Amino acid sequence: MISRSIVYILDKVKGIGILALCVGFLFSLLLGENVSAAGSWTKTDGRWWYDNGDGTYAKGEYIDGYWLDSSGWYDSAWNGSWKHNSKGWWFQSGSWYPTSSWLKVDGKWYYFESSGYMATSKWIEIGDDRYYLTESGAMAVSTTVDGLEVDASGRCTTKLPAIQELVSGSETAKKTSQIITVVGHELTLWQKQEDGSWTAGDTYYCGFGENGFSNAETRVMGDKTTPKGSFPLTYAFGKAENPGTSMTYRSITPYSYLSSERDTYNTWVESETYVIGEHLTDYYQYKYAVNIGFNIDPVVYGRGAGIFLHCKSTGHWYTSGCVSLEESDMVTVLKQLKDGAYMIIVEYKSELKNY
Question: In CATH, what is the architecture of 40-156?
């Protein structure tokens, strides 16, 4: 198995990775190894690796449930397998499973969403690029999907419009002079200028629902998803004093509740007696917050109550459906907000055109 060693050594030399593959392939021919095989496991000096059968070897991926590290050696600590339930499929190794990330399994790329479930039959966006995940979950390559060409790397050759174009052309832009966009984990405050153009402020990392995003019209209370859509920001509030926002600001009292009761569902209630819902003063995350006008016109009982922009939790980023920011970022955003602002929440940039 001299060829594998030669490929391995040359592959470590910056800039000649392709040469490494070619040389390894040639040595395979000279040594009489089978280069047409579909792939096979091979053991060298007591360690296992996977020969792809074309002069290359697998690395940074799973083959047959076995993890091959960045050098191509089998690492038994990361054995994994596919799992599934009524919601979908995911890949797991011990207690670990990929989220919001790619994983190569048996020669094919799969994308796992924030919930950990494999994406299927949909486009996803990574930066300015988009990729299509087929019904099986495998990334499409060298094909056409929805009239769009996908190259050999899986990347769509048609570029996405600039986010400024999507924001300025949105229906929401006709209603307001301030828009907060939440695109996945990126929150940006946009301001309308006197000439009608839109400019972006800083972008902040934000958290969202533990189970990802959902359509606002079909969301169910307690599903831990963040609703997608365009929503008015109706008021700011908090346990602390107004940090300097010009928005209408409500101070939380010992009697403040966000009701989940049928007659007052999804409304702020001041009551000296217990109200089913969130007792607002119990949540340190509500030191500063903004009410996102989800499920208010009309109010649908059971769809969800109390979707806020608020300070992040101490130990994690995910929420039960709200959007979260670092406290310092929350204050910075609040100081710029005014009444009449809107928030557009989407998972991917191209969805902004829908709102």
Answer: Ribbon (2.10)
Cα 342 to Cα 215: distance, rounded to the nearest angstrom: 17
Q: In the structure encoding, which two tokens stand for residue 282, read together?
A: 């119990």
Where is 153: in which H helix or E strand? Answer: none
Q: What token pair was written down for 35?
A: 């280069």
How far apart are alpha carbons 78 and 255 in whole angstroms? 51
Please name the residues in contact with 283: beta carbons below 8 A apart, sequence gap of 6 or more. 310
> 43 and 59 in contact (C-beta within 8 Å)?
no
Question: Taking the CB of residue 252, how many other CB atoms lie within 10 A of it?
Answer: 20
Q: What is the mean pLDDT of residues 45-73?
A: 95
CATH superfamily of 163-354: L,D-transpeptidase catalytic domain-like (2.40.440.10)
Q: Whole-angstrom Cα distance, residue 76 to residue 86? A: 29
Residues for the chain: how many in total?
Answer: 355
Are 40-156 and 163-354 equal in CATH topology? no
Sequence ranges of the domains in the chain:
40-156, 163-354
Q: Can you give the pTM of this predicted structure?
A: 0.76
Cβ neighbours of 33 (radius 10 Å):
19
Per-residue confidence (pLDDT) for residue 128, from 0 to 100:
84
- Quick check: helix, strand or coil at residue 163? helix
> What percentage of the chain has pLDDT greater than the value 70?
90
- Of 54, 55, 53, 57, the closest CA to residue 70 belongs to 57
pLDDT surpassing 90 at residue 136: yes
144: CB partners within 8 A, 6+ apart: 150
